[in-house]
Amino acid sequence: METIEAIKARRAINHFDKERKVSAEVLEELLRIANLSPSSFNLQPWKVIVVEDPQMKTRLREAAMNQPKVEEASFVLVMVADVRAVEENQERVIEDRIQKGLIKDKSQGEGIKEVMRLLYGEKDSLKRKIFAVKNTAFFAMTLMIAAKGLGLETHPMDGFDEQKVKALFGLREDQIIPLLVAVGFPRPGLTLPERPFRRELKEFVSWY
Ligand SMILES: Cc1cc2nc3c(=O)[nH]c(=O)nc-3n(C[C@H](O)[C@H](O)[C@H](O)COP(=O)(O)O)c2cc1C
After folding, report:
1. Sign of the alpha-carbon torsion through 71, 72, 73, 79
2. Residue whose CA is closest, atom 10 of ligand 1?
3. Could you tell me where the beta strands, DSSP code E, fall in 65-148?
């Protein structure tokens, strides 16, 4: 499916086919494609928890405002934005740049690390949280469009209790869950409600 077509056809799908499961191989392909998402300095602050076990889905549904799609979908992806990604991944980012001939040596790498510190602050700063959530949201959006391209449907969800979901998967207090994404095939015969309105460009675009 062409990109523009996939973007235009994507919808938040409320009802999934419980009988038709997306394979783990296809899900991995989807995750590999989404992993090509851009990120600041290529720091890739996303982590993904794949929930497929029916009992875990039931518990996740309880923590997600009882939304039936959590149990119906083949997989529910818990998107995790990790504020520690700067410290975790910066050495690899520098090594990669040296290896690809983009920078000369580690001393130039130290300069890049300094810029990272400046832009993304300390681990508990608002700057750092915004960095982690922004890049993880790009990952999630790429995944939803790519899913459409692979013939799958998705549903993004904000409707969950973050503390409960963190407890369910043993996440750290400083990790953030920007959203959950349900992935699956649509329930057979599903008719979608008309797409919710979008604002006119003039309402949100300004030109200078
Ligand atoms: C971050 C995010 C969180 C959302 N959370 C929920 C949710 O918890 N439950 C729900 O039914 N819809 C949720 N939605 C779906 C939106 O309501 C839906 O995307 C919007 O109405 C536009 O519809 P469309 O995606 O079909 O074009 C969420 C969407 C986004 C992007």
Report:
1. negative
2. 157
3. 75-82
**The pair of three-digit structure tokens given for residue 159, joined into one six-digit string:** 């409707």
Distance CA 84, CA 19 (A): 39
Apex CA 28: angle with CA 25 and CA 34, to 5°?
A: 145
Which pair of tokens denotes residue 165?
A: 């979901």
Q: Quick one: which atom of ligand 1 is closest to the CA of 64?
A: 8
| Global confidence as pTM | 0.97
Six token digits for residue 100: 């690809």
Contact 12, 155 (CB under 8 A): yes
**Atom 18 of ligand 1: nearest residue by CA position:** 12
Q: Which of 69, 157, 161, 198 to mutate to test the pocket of ligand 1 (most atoms within 8 A of CB)?
A: 157
CATH number attached to the domain at 3-84+126-187: 3.40.109.10
Q: What is the pLDDT along the chain (208 residues), one digit of tens a residue?
A: 699 999 999 999 999 999 999 999 999 999 999 999 999 999 999 999 999 999 999 999 999 999 999 999 999 999 999 999 999 999 999 999 999 999 999 999 999 999 999 999 999 999 999 999 999 999 999 999 999 999 999 999 999 999 999 999 999 999 999 999 999 999 999 999 999 999 999 999 999 9
Name all residues whose Cβ lies below 6 A of ligand 1.
11-12, 67, 156-159, 179, 195-196
Domain segments of the chain: what residues? 3-84+126-187
